[in-house]
C-alpha cells in the first residue's frame, strides 16, 4: 500500500504499473491480485486508506457541532477542512507526497470511486449540507452543494498547487506553515459562502 501510494503520488494513477509497485514493495506481482483483486482494487484501497480517516473525523466533528445545537459557517468550514490537514500530518507519507496523492485523487482519478467510498462521501455531504442550510437560512440544497464544492476546490487547489503561487509571485509569496495557509483558505471560503 505504501509503495503504491508513493508511486501514484509521484507519477499518477494512469502510468504506474503493478510491476513497478511490487518491485518497490519487494513483493510478488501476484500479491496484488491476491490481496486486492486487481490494480483498480489496489487504487481503491489506497484511496480508502487516505479518505476514510478524513471522513470519520469530519463526521465526528459535525456530530459534536450538532450536539451543541448548531454551528456558524466558519465552524462548519473548519470542521470540513481541518480533518484533511490532520490526515496530512498523521500520514506515513511525507506532507508533499500526501498532498500530491490527494490532488491526484481529486483531479486525476481515471474512473469512478468505489460504491463504499461514494457512500462515505454522500454521508458526509448530507450531514454538512443540512448543517450549512441551518447556518445560512434561505439557501437551497443545490446552492449549498455548490458552495461546499467550490470551497473544497479552493482547499484542494491550495494544497496541490500552493507551490505555483510562490513561483508566479516571483518571491512575493514565500513558504508558510500549513496552518497559516489553511486559515487563509478558511477566511476566503467563509466570505464566499456567505455571499
What are the SSEs and their pairings?
Elements: H1 2-11, H2 18-25, H3 30-36, H4 39-68, H5 73-90, H6 95-107, H7 115-135, H8 141-168, H9 178-194
Q: Kindly give the count of domains.
A: 1
CATH topology: Tetracycline Repressor, domain 2
Provide the gyration radius in Å: 18 Å
For the record, give the distance between the C-alpha atoms at the N and C termini, rounded to a whole number: 42 Å
Which architecture would the CATH scheme give at its second level? Orthogonal Bundle
Strand-pairing-aware structural class: mainly alpha
Helix content: over 70%
Global outline = globular
Instruction: Count up the helices.
Output: 9
Task: Report the order of strands and helices.
Answer: HHHHHHHHH
The CATH superfamily is identified as Tetracycline Repressor, domain 2
For the residues shown, what is the average pLDDT? Answer: 90
Binned strand content: under 5%
CATH class: Mainly Alpha
Number of strands: 0
Q: Quick one: biggest sheet?
A: none
Report the uncertain regions. Answer: none
Description:
With 195 residues, the protein is an all-alpha fold. The protein has one domain: Tetracycline Repressor, domain 2 (Orthogonal Bundle), CATH 1.10.357.10. It is built from 9 helices and no strands. The termini are far apart. The relative contact order is 0.12.
